[in-house]
Write a structure and sequence with these properties.
heterodimer, A: Four Helix Bundle (Hemerythrin (Met), subunit A), Rossmann fold, 2 domains, 11 helices, about 55% helix, about 15% strand, elongated, B: alpha/beta, Four Helix Bundle (Hemerythrin (Met), subunit A), 434 Repressor (Amino-terminal Domain), eight-stranded mixed sheet, two-stranded antiparallel ribbon
């Protein structure tokens, strides 16, 4: 069942998996009896993954039902079920617009989640797959963000549309899609400045970027939200607000190579139905990988 | 969904009318709510467990007094407990007498180290120091350019090594550059690193050993979830740090990570980073953070903001007018301008305790541009109209609409809104009076003036 790239995924995620499955193994060692303490500890373990209290309460509740109904005798069967439950929460109708095309993608998110790095890696990967790429640097706010994307453009050998810092991000986006209509790349990636979802002005600015892009783009415009795996329950607010303002089409969860488990993705999938398209499991270019619900879930709950 | 812990507990104790001690069953119900509130605020579940146990012990047998409801008594216990844990007073940056002093910043990728470096340098200069910043992030593309750009913005020098230099050598050379340049404090920005990346953690140790910082500060994103304890513990064990800068506190994250880190490492939170501007670095106040974690609104910050932007005489005069219901559209205009100065209506509402519960406020439209439009409408009114809006008849409405470039319906809406505000203020007045008598001033502080 293990595909080669997932071997690599499991390497990247091994630490988080070891941690969580270590905790689950402690549960398993408690013996086959499913007593009250077992369920409580299971709940704590899942809360520790940032899934959020309500998602955890719900999933554990369903597990308890199943344990009774299907007469699951011991803890390891429950853990199997748990994997399935988490996977089913993460399984959404997914249109991987990053692999298809032609498409224009706006990359958005709060500060410091890894938007620019994600754009850079996507560009390099697309080129390696033989697809043509155009980059647009609409993060005109953060110092040296443009230079950072420039470095990536050079690494990937792709053209980039840029203006000086402080320019109107919408005009950079416009220029980018205008260039795209001539160059007709397979994928146009537009990096935007990180912003807190609680800032009304910056959210309006972002909406303007989307409006302008959609107006001029000859190809469909999609919105990609980048979220950091270390994010706690605030991630749900982030996703909710960005989705309300921008209609988010897909999610990238970065920084899964630490000990953070990215459980917030489960909460986001449950509430907003936004599919995860890529996960970031390291600093290397190849460490941005496709997402698979089943494997993701089992990578969390046990060794693959 | 309850907005905050007080409301949750109020609901739990709703049916509790008897006087005397809190029973064990009451306390159990309350503890469940406290656990939920803390977990939703991203406090680590192990820390929550310990906290709840401690709070429980104190809560059982608590006398329900005349002045506090059972819910309020428990909230007080929880708040006290959190404040005690986070340190009861704000902690400051202590630099030794040696020149130059060295401060080193560490943290995960994307936590906001480079921005915090510039903000800290800016703050120290305001305190009369002559800072220099050292760029040791040789990995992230353009990270050094970023620090240099920030340095230019605030006019503080940045030391950078040559391409290929080792970060520890750059740091050491930076300190030397500080001595040569007569700088008395060096702030070393380092690359973001994962706490599980041994090579990078070793590098941080080498930088530390090369410059022997007076203070090592870890920058932590306020949005961090359960993992904060693992990260903080690893940094404490391997690099060791003296305190924490909480970044991105201007968002709506409850920031439970602050509590977890303090509990697990014992290290104080020293600064709060609250905005994109380079002067947005504040001292950390444990009491405010405790309220924020519990979702109780940041009353003190709200008051401080109000005090900053509204001088005391003005406030006193305003209050007198509020009391006598002589509130006019001129005052309304004043208020709008105050609100704008305080960072907009949305910012303010977030800081108000219980704001989420007030139907009037929930329905109120928070559109900042609306403020400008409203201002224009009021400015198109005559002095008499502003004092006595009831005289604004159809033809006056039309004139005002033309004068301010809006539709008559907008003018109508404003007048209606004004009447609502007047009513709302009367309610606030009523509430404040009652609470003041009953609960001896807890909750909304007695000195608080509603700025609108």
């Amino acid at each position: 069942m293990t595909t080669p790239w997932y071997k690599r995924l499991s390497e990247g995620m091994s630490r988080s998996r070891e941690q969580l499955s270590g905790q689950l193994n402690v549960l398993l060692r408690r013996g086959p009896n499913l007593d009250e303490q077992f369920w409580e500890e299971l709940e704590d373990t899942l809360i520790g993954s940032d899934m959020g209290v309500s998602a955890v309460t719900d999933i554990v509740g369903r597990l308890r039902d199943a344990a009774t109904r299907k007469a699951l005798a011991d803890a390891s069967e429950v853990i199997d079920h748990l994997t399935d439950e988490i996977a089913s929460e993460l399984t959404l109708d997914t249109d991987d617009f990053l692999a298809a095309g032609p498409v224009t993608v706006l990359v958005i998110g709060v500060n410091g989640t890894g938007k620019t790095t994600t754009v850079g890696k996507l560009a390099k990967q697309s080129v390696d797959e033989g697809r043509s790429v155009l980059l647009g640097s609409a993060d005109t706010y953060r110092a040296a963000a443009i230079e950072q994307l420039d470095v990536w453009a050079e690494r990937a050998g792709v053209p980039i549309v840029r203006r000086e810092r402080g320019s109107d991000p919408a005009s950079v986006a416009f220029e980018t899609v205008e260039r795209a209509s001539v160059a007709t790349p397979d994928i146009t990636l537009i990096d935007t400045a990180g912003r807190l979802h609680t800032s009304p002005d910056l959210m309006l600015e972002l909406q303007k970027v989307k409006r302008v892009t959609e107006k001029r783009s000859d190809v469909p415009v999609k919105v990609l939200l980048v979220m950091d795996a270390t994010t706690g329950q605030n991630g749900l607010n982030q996703a909710r607000e960005f989705d309300a303002a921008m209609n988010v089409n897909g999610l990238v969860i970065t920084k899964l190579d630490g000990t953070a488990k990215g459980g917030i993705a489960v909460a986001v999938a449950r509430e907003l139905g936004i599919p995860i398209l890529r996960i970031g499991v390291g600093e290397g270019i190849d460490d941005l990988r496709p997402f698979d619900a089943k494997e993701f879930a089992s990578a969390i709950t046990r060794g693959v | 969904m309850f907005q905050n812990l007080s409301d949750r507990l109020q609901a739990v104790f709703k049916n509790l009318t008897g006087r005397g001690k809190l029973s064990e069953a009451d306390v159990d119900a309350a503890m469940r709510e406290i656990r939920m509130a803390l977990l939703e605020a991203d406090v680590n579940f192990k820390v929550v467990k310990e906290l709840v146990a401690g709070i429980r012990e104190r809560a059982i047998g608590t006398e329900v007094t005349e002045s506090l409801t059972p819910g309020q008594s428990v909230v007080k216990i929880v708040l006290d407990e959190l404040v005690t844990l986070m340190g009861t007073t704000e902690s400051r940056l202590t630099l030794s007498g040696r020149t130059p002093s060295v401060v080193m910043l560490v943290g995960l990728q994307g936590s906001g180290k480079t921005t915090a470096t510039a903000k800290l340098a800016n703050l120290l200069r305001k305190q009369g120091r002559r800072p220099i910043m050292v760029a040791c992030d040789v990995y992230r593309p353009a990270a050094i350019d970023q620090l240099q750009a920030l340095g230019r913005e605030i006019d503080i020098p940045v030391y950078r090594g040559a391409d290929g230099d080792d970060p520890a050598d750059i740091a050491a050379a930076g300190v030397k550059a500080a001595i040569d340049g007569m700088r008395d404090v060096v702030i070393v920005d380092t690359a973001g690193r994962l706490h599980v990346d041994d090579d990078m953690m070793d590098e941080a140790v080498r930088i530390r050993d090369a410059v022997k910082p007076d203070q090592i500060l870890m920058v932590v994103d306020a949005m961090t979830g359960q993992d904060a304890v693992n990260v903080a513990k690893a940094f404490a064990d391997k690099v060791d740090f003296d305190g924490v800068i909480m970044s991105k506190l201007d968002g709506d994250a409850r920031g439970g990570a602050a509590l977890s880190i303090r509990k697990v490492t014992g290290k104080p939170i020293k600064f709060a980073s609250v905005g994109e501007k380079l002067d947005a670095l504040e001292s950390f106040h444990p009491d405010r953070m405790a309220q924020r974690i519990l979702g109780m609104g940041d009353v003190v910050t709200l008051i401080e903001k109000a005090q900053d932007s509204m001088d005391a005489d003005q406030a006193a005069a305003m209050e007198a007018r509020l009391r006598t219901s002589g509130f006019t559209l001129d005052d309304f205009l004043d208020q709008l301008q105050q609100v704008k100065k305080m960072g907009g209506l949305g910012d303010m509402l977030k800081m108000m305790p219980g704001a989420g519960q007030m139907k009037e406020l929930k329905d109120a439209e928070i559109d900042e541009r609306q403020l400008d439009r409203t201002e224009a409408i009021i400015r198109s009114m005559t002095a008499r109209e502003r004092v006595k809006p009831s005289i604004i008849n159809g033809s006056r409405r039309e004139r005002i609409a033309n004068g301010s470039g809006v539709a008559v319906s907008d003018v109508n809406r404003l007048i209606k809104q004004f009447e609502q505000t007047r009513k709302l203020m009367k309610q606030f007045q009523g509430q404040q009076g009652k609470k003041g008598k009953r609960r001896g001033g807890r909750g909304m502080p007695p000195g608080m003036r509603m700025p609108f």
